[in-house]
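Researcher: Please translate sequence to structure tokens.
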Amino acid sequence: MVTGYRFVERRIRRLALCGLLSVLVALFFAQTPHAPFGQDARLKQKIELAVAGVPLRTLFQRIQVQTGVSLKADAALADSAAIVYVPRRPLHELMTHLATAFHAEWHADDSQPPAYTLRPLPLTGETPSQRLTRQRLDDLPRRLRALYEPEAEEAAEDEDLQRAIEAYQETFRKERLPLRLLGRLTPAEIDALRAGKTLEFSSRTDPRFDPNWLAKWKSWLENTIAYMAEAHSTPKGDPILAEYYVDVLRKGIARGDEMRLRVSCDPETAAIQCAVGLFAQGELIYGETFVHDEDPPDPEGFSWHDFTAVMPKDHPWRDLEFEQRDSEEPERRNRSSVRRVRPPALPPLNGDWFAYEAEVVLRIAQAAGKPFVAEYGWTPSSLGKVYTLPDFAYSLAASGYEWLVRDGWVIMRYRDPRDARPQRIPKHALQQWFFKPNRRGVLTIQDLMSIARYVQNAENLYAALAVFGIDHGVVFDGELPCPYVVISELQGLPQVHHGLLYAVSSLEPLYEMPEAFRVLVALTEAQRRALLAEQTIRIETLSPRALDAVLDLAYSRDKARAPSFWQGTPPKGTLRLISREQQVRWLLLPRDRLAKIRDVDSASNLWRELKKRLNYDPESLYREYGVELSCVRVYLLEVHIDGSSHAFELLKDHTPLLQRNPFLRTPK
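Model: Translation complete:
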């Protein structure tokens, strides 16, 4: 018994000693850098940094100058930009949180002292976009119902508003009556849609079509066509279109004897596309298309109140707000619990657009007072002026960012780089497009092909550039030796083509016809190069995505007539890039008129004054002030299909204009 007791006593003492050693080791390593940093005393050096939108390769060079520690970024991360605010903290802390921000890890080499390389971690599992697609596919029956049944709305207190809501809902149901068949699909048909199969139904063969639907839908179509014919029969209408409505379309609808419905769901995005057609003895008389591609949900934790975003309660920027103008309410200015952030001024037209949003984030981090690291990527939305901090944080979250708070540090990083990184535009591409020496902002067709690599939607880029110009009030540039203004038909405001605004004008065709740019986006890099080389591409060789984009463009005026909707085999045709020169009409105003222009408002007033004086006659305006300085080269995408050809504008290249009128070039 004694021997057994002593044995147990020794075991207890040994376990206690091991436990004490474990605690001491844990305390020691809690104060030293984590692996692979080991015992590298250099990493305990304290460092101060404040950088916005700097590539990792440049950031690490600065750190090496300060500390003597060799840091490198893997080729996959070297050009990725960072935002860093470090108010005198150990280097190993910065390195640890940089790795977290970039979804990466450090690797030490075998040299003495070691050099460190930041390498991306392998990412597995679903991305947020893939998860959202899966959730939407799971929710497919409800989303199909939303195509034919309007959302329920609370009863409005105002009687006129309530009647308007009811009228809208009634019209919605009548217009989409054939789509009610979607509510009668079987589970097997729903699964087939989820798998990417296209389904087609006919009222001739499918008993699930209500016998009354055909007559009711034809009645609604006849009433709608009659209204459109009457509208175009007025002096301001289109008599040719009115005749088509009465003599062709109305008579065709009267002969209609069959409804067909075609529906598909893209398994990669969960977007739903439907075509409904009225046929007469197998001939398509009238067709419409409907899509269901919802906006992404609000970022987790964010909400809205009075049209302003509300940040989550635990958000590290919750107690911050941007400084407002002096005109804000005194009680708002005197709120002591809120810390103020002074956002930077918008970059000038010849400044660094890339750095603006990053500088805003850096100033927020400095106002918050905690060390901060972030991965940063530029997108078209990064060009917009910031107004409220919650809205700014919402836009960042919507573009894929999340915030972490660890060990007193704030980390802003992409929720999943696989979704976010492909959407950002490298700084070198931005400079290539908009900062050419002596003709900054003039876009070429080569630039547009490059833009198609990074920008999914040219409308977003156009809108961002236009708003940037408006925020700057760019209507007059005194640096030009021969001041001139261009009357924009879209806005009715005089605008000076100074750098940025050349790009705005160049992209106007894609604002008017965005389907044309989507074709470029859907093509492969090799196919885009073939277009630039003036080669013809056969439509049947395109990928399904590119084919859909081409048909969406070719049948943009009547999408339901696209062959893809009503036949199984892809159509034959060709695609090529063509160009031609186009004359440009300018308004050259006297200097005494230009002297009145100081901002957008004064330019708008001058424009209204001139129009009023000339009885709102554009031709009189051009006769008095107009001049044809030169021309631009217009690039068009020509689609030959179904025996006919259509050309759609892609870009207006101002290079010929500047070559023949050197005084229009922007200063270097």
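Researcher: Any highlights?
Model: The first strand starts at residue 46 and ends at 55.
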